[in-house]
Amino acid sequence: DLHKAIRRQRQMCIRDRLDVKMYFKEEIIMKNRIIVFGGSMFMNMQAENKEYRLLPNKIVSKLEEKYILDNFSNQSLTSERSLCYLKEFAGKRKYNSCILSLGEADALKNTPLEFRNNLEEILKLLKEYQIRPLLVSLPNLKKEELAEYQHIIDDIALRENIEYVYNGDTDMAVYKVKNESQMKRAILELCA
Predict the structure, then answer these.
(1) CB-hemisphere CA count at 13 Å for 53?
(2) Fewer CB within 10 Å: N-end or C-end of the chain?
C-alpha cells in the first residue's frame, strides 16, 4: 500500500508539472512579445519631481491586453538611446515585433543625419534578431522642425518596405489613419 501511494503521488506530481508546463507553453505561444520605442504617442508613465505617475494611454492598454509588452517610450527617448536599449535587451529576450515611433526627441537632440544613421542601425539589428519592425509616423506633422525627420522615416519605410502606420495624407502604400482610434486599430492589426 505504501509503495502504491508513493507511486500515485509521483504520477500526480508528474501530471501536475506537465499541466503547468503546458499552461505556460500555451500562454507563451498565445502572447507575442513586443518591444516599443516611442515618444508621447506610446508613453504611459511620466516623471515629475522624481516621482512617476501612470498616464492613461489607449494604444498601450490595448497592446498590453493582447501582448507581452516592453515599453521604453518616454518624451525624451531618442533614436540613439533606443539603439542602446535594443542592444541591451533584444539579445536577452525573444521579441516578435518592435514598434518604432521615434523622431520627436531627436529633433531637439540629434541632427537629421544622426537620426537616419541610428534608425538604420536599429533596423539592421532588428533584422539580425529576426524581430519584425513597425514604423509609426510622428504624431504632429504641423511642426516645421519635425518635417525633415518625418521625411527620413518616410524614406526608410518606403526603401526598406517596412510596415508603416502614417498619421496624415500620403500616396505611400501604408496604413493611413486620421485619428487615435484608427491608429490603435492599425497598430493592433499589424502586431497580430
Answers:
(1) 4
(2) N
**Residue keyed to cell 492598454:** 61
DSSP-based helix, strand, coil % in the chain, nearest 5: 55, 20, 30
Rounded CA-CA distance 187/163 in Å is: 10
Question: Half-sphere exposure (CA, 13 Å, Cβ side) for 27?
Answer: 8
Q: Are the C-beta atoms of 70 and 33 separated by less than 8 Å?
A: yes
Asked if residue 191 lies in contact with residue 33, where contact means CB atoms within 8 angstroms, the answer is: no
Per residue of the chain (192 residues), give pLDDT as tens. Answer: 555 655 555 555 555 544 444 444 444 444 688 888 988 777 755 555 666 555 556 777 778 888 888 888 888 889 999 999 998 887 778 889 999 999 989 988 999 999 999 999 999 999 999 999 999 888 765 677 788 998 899 899 888 888 887 765 444 445 566 666 666 666 766 666
Task: Please tell me the distance from the alpha carbon of residue 134 to that of residue 19, in angstroms, as a whole number.
Answer: 35
What's the rounded Cα separation, in Å, for the pair 183 and 10?
A: 52
67-83: b (≥16 Cβ within 10 Å) or e: bbbbbbbbeebbbbbbb
For residue 145, give the DSSP letter.
G
